[in-house]
Amino acid sequence: MAVREVFEIWDYLVVGAMLLVSGAIGVYFRFSGGKQKTTDEYLMAGRNMSMLPVILSLMATIQTAVGTLGFPGEVYLYGAGLYVYPLGFTVALVFCTFVHTPVYFGIQVTSAYEYLEKRFGRLTRIIISGLFVLQMVLFMSVGLYSPSIALSAVSGLSHLVSILTVGLVCAFYCTLGGMKAVLWTDVFQSVLMWFALLSVIIKGSADLGGVQEVFRIAGEGGRLNFFNFNFDPTLRFTVMSTFIGGFMYGITTCGANQTQVQRLLTVSTLKRSQLALLISIPMNLLMYYTIYTCGLVIYANFANCDPLLSPQTTGISSGDQLIPYYMIRSFSAYRGMAGFCVSGVFCAALTSISSAVNSLAAVTTEDFVKPIFLRRGHFSEKASTRASKFFALFYSALCIAMTYIVGNIKAIIPAAFVVFTAIGGPTLSIITLGMLTTTSNQKGVIIGLLSGIALNAWIGTGAIISDFPQVKLPQSNESCPVTNLPYNTTSSVMAGMNLTTPFTTDVTSFPEDDISLMKKEIFPLYKLSFLLHPVPGTLLTLIIGYIVSFITGGDKLVDENLLCPFMRKRLSANTLKTNGKVASGFPVLEDNSSTDHRNGFTNHVHPDKMKNGLQNILEESKL
Fold it and tell me: Residues with Cβ < 8 Å from 418, sequence gap 6 or more?
């Protein structure tokens, strides 16, 4: 029996039940509580959410469908080097907790990029908001397309049906129920996703005789290479590259991305927001290591009969298809279990798309529509809410349409990866410059931003075109039935990056001599591990942004609320030491207050007020 034939009626019923529950949550929040009548209710859940849904939603939206499918394949093909990745991610979230979150919460924004207008000016906000829209539209399309392709390849589910089902259900509950529906569906979907992955570990380990046997086989296959201390940045996974990659992803998503910042602002106090982010760390660690361990379990079960070496027989040819392939093959004898596990993959897609839809609606309404109408006159709360709902529906439809385009114009997939990588790091840099320095100004950060994006885009595009090959660990099909094999060999397979996701790889083989020749011919920056691609542009943005700001005179009108608590403390200390004069390179205003007409708000920086305000903020920030 072919693998794709085992997805039966019970499996479809389970997947249907999951989608029905998700839709029902949207209906419930449409007709309960505030009934989504205001933008504060619709986009920010009334800013009074309990911590549980926020914590689980933070975890669910970080674990994207691309990562849930791609990471097990990476561990399967390259080993356990990725286990260091969550450690860098953890450090990043702690940093965001005490640097970025207090600032966002203190000014009570709806769009995270409103901060940029207050700190630098309107032009910076428009540029970053526009880049965010482009980034997330491409992210949504690839995030929906990739899992649908992987699932259709192994389950027999129609590719079109997969896309339409997930897209329409997501549009339904996002548009009806707003942020509350998104948060609570994230709770339901993240729990289901984790149990589906856990089922793979339990069943896979039991089939081999226990967890010890899994690790024994993985060790013999060279997959337990947790710590590679080689400092070569061209190697796919080393301690350095995975730690830095995890740090960059964590700090970018939680410090500079609307999807996470918006969730952190749905609770009532700063302390609760910080606690939610900190408590989400062990939840994310649990999910990351569950995903990675799935890769080890799948490898142990396929160690001597690798399905990737027999694509004509198995129907799969890339690492992101391994986990749905294993789910359906392993649970085919249990009614509904294959459907349950595949539902977990669908949940990963739903959480990713719903978070993007909601955040795009918030950014478009707050950063583009509302300012235009306010300049022309009054923009009522009712009109603002209607606009938010319209854009939630619009971006859901656009996601489905873009997925069709992605499937027919393959160049869009690598382009989406380049855009997503190029924008995130430089955006983080200018926000961090604003929160950690009083020198950075609009001229400096815009020049730095454009420089960083250009560098990252150049590196990403060059890496895709050059297709630098990576050495995979040994794979074998020596125990497969001869009739199922197009060839019978044990080989070490080398491959470049498959463009479906930044994580998966194809099965093209290269001789060692050819690898060495390719390394010499490829430009050094194009050979960087994909985890390090955002780093050069991020650093360039920080450096150029600060230097140009300094040369152009800095920014002497900085509201204390737009600086992180550490900087407020330092600024206050310098003020007290110098009686209001400039100290240690940090300009301090001597007047009691001054109005910054660029942003339309007043900066109060009287030393006594600053000292007392700082003490209050720090007390509130303590956990």
Answer: 456, 457, 460, 461, 464
d(CA 322, CA 297): 11
Taking residues 40-69, what's their average pLDDT? Answer: 92
Mean pLDDT of the chain: 84
Place of tokens 């950075």: 440
Which pTM was predicted? Answer: 0.87
Instruction: Indicate whether 501 belongs to any domain.
Output: no
Question: Which among 463, 444, 613 has a CA at the least distance from the CA of 542?
Answer: 444
The pairing of beta strand 593-596 with beta strand 601-604? antiparallel
What sections of 365-411 are H helices per DSSP? 370-376, 381-408
Q: Are the C-beta atoms of 537 and 449 separated by less than 8 Å?
A: no
Q: In whole angstroms, what is the distance from residue 499 CA to residue 318 CA?
A: 10
Tokens of 328: 């359906």
Q: 2, 86, 51: which is closest to 292 by C-alpha?
A: 86
- Strand (E) or helix (H) holding 519: helix 512-521
Q: At 128, which CATH number?
A: 1.20.1730.10
For residue 120, report the phi and psi dihedrals to the nearest 5 degrees: -120, -40
> In this model, does residue 149 exceed pLDDT 80?
no
Q: Residue 208 class from Cβ within 10 Å (0-12 exposed, 13-18 middle, 19+ buried)? A: middle
The residue among 386, 408, 430 that closes a domain is 408
Instruction: Tell the burial category of 402 from Cβ atoms under 10 Å away from its Cβ (0-12, 13-18, 19+).
Output: buried
Query: Which three-class secondary structure state does DSSP give residue 470?
Result: strand
Neighbours of 425 (CB within 10 A): 27
Q: Which of 408, 433, 467 is the last residue of a domain?
A: 408
- Distance from chain centroid for Cα 150: 20
Token digits for 459? 């590196």
What's the domain count of the chain?
A: 2
Tens digits of per-residue pLDDT, 550-587? 999 998 788 889 999 989 888 877 765 554 443 333 33
CA 441, 444, 447, 448 dihedral sign is: negative
- Tell me, yes or no, whether 497 lies in a domain: no
Q: Is residue 391 part of a domain?
A: yes
Domain that holds residue 586: 556-621
What is the per-residue pLDDT for 520?
A: 63
- Classify residue 266: in a domain, yes or no: yes
Among 209, 208, 192, 246, smallest CA distance to 71 is for: 246
